């Protein structure tokens, strides 16, 4: 299913009638989604399709979204009319923390910043000619992985392979981001901050279900923790 959040999107004007969808009451209807994740949304939308057709308007938080549940219509939207739908709406409050206020490639507006990020990604980080430049970093990461696995195995306890591979991949990403081999304690510090932020992100999502002013009043302490996480 393809989704387009349309409220506050510069390229889409709400002058025409929106596709059909279920009746919702602001705030009250949103409460049912607080204990759920977006993974629960797909089966819900599949049920709506039988009643409202392949294009559905549904309110999530204080934004309206259009969901496309047809491969052919999704192709028309994403491929044939891709430029028209390429931009993104302003992010919710919690997404600003993760995306540095839309300053990464998956959340940036379709403008010069996004084109610069894309060019940097395709011409430098992911370009085949640049792969060899990561050879020193790959060797460094392999040594870290072997050292940690060897040390864990000598304790006589079961070895959680996934933890060591995740840490090794994180070391590689850090090296690619900063262009140098950081010390182990610094890598662990960065890893801890990002893990805490990722695990707490779902808890912060409640702020997205209320208008900004009301959310700031009702969840003042949670907003403060969100801002601390951003710093």
From TrEMBL:
Record-level GO BP terms: isoquinoline alkaloid biosynthetic process
Name of the featured protein: Cytochrome P450
Signal peptide boundaries: none
Coiled coil: none
GO MF entry, a single one: iron ion binding
Superkingdom, taxonomy of origin: Eukaryota
Pfam families to which the protein is assigned, alphabetical: p450
InterPro entries recorded: Cyt_P450, Cyt_P450_E_grp-I, Cyt_P450_sf
SUPFAM superfamilies registered for this protein in UniProt: Cytochrome P450 (SSF48264)
């Amino acid at each position: 299913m393809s989704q387009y959040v349309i409220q506050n999107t510069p390229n889409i004007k709400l002058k025409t009638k929106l596709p059909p969808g279920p009746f919702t009451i602001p705030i009250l209807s949103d409460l049912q989604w607080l204990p759920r994740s977006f993974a629960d949304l797909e089966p819900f939308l599949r049920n709506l399709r039988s009643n409202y057709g392949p294009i559905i308007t549904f309110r999530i938080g204080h934004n309206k979204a259009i969901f496309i549940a047809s491969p052919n219509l999704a192709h028309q939207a994403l491929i044939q009319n891709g430029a028209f739908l390429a931009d993104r709406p302003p992010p919710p409050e919690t997404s600003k923390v993760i995306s540095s206020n839309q300053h990464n490639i998956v959340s940036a507006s379709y403008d010069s910043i996004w084109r610069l990020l894309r060019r940097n990604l395709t011409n430098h980080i992911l370009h085949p000619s640049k792969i060899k430049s990561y050879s020193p970093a790959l060797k460094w990461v392999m040594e870290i992985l072997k050292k940690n696995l060897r040390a864990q195995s000598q304790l006589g306890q079961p070895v959680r392979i996934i933890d060591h591979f995740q840490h090794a991949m994180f070391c590689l990403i850090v090296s690619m981001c900063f262009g140098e081999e950081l010390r182990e304690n610094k890598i662990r510090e960065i890893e801890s901050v990002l893990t805490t932020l990722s695990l707490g992100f779902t808890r912060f999502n409640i702020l997205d279900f209320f208008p900004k002013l009301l959310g700031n009043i009702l969840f003042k302490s949670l907003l403060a923790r969100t801002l601390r996480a951003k710093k």
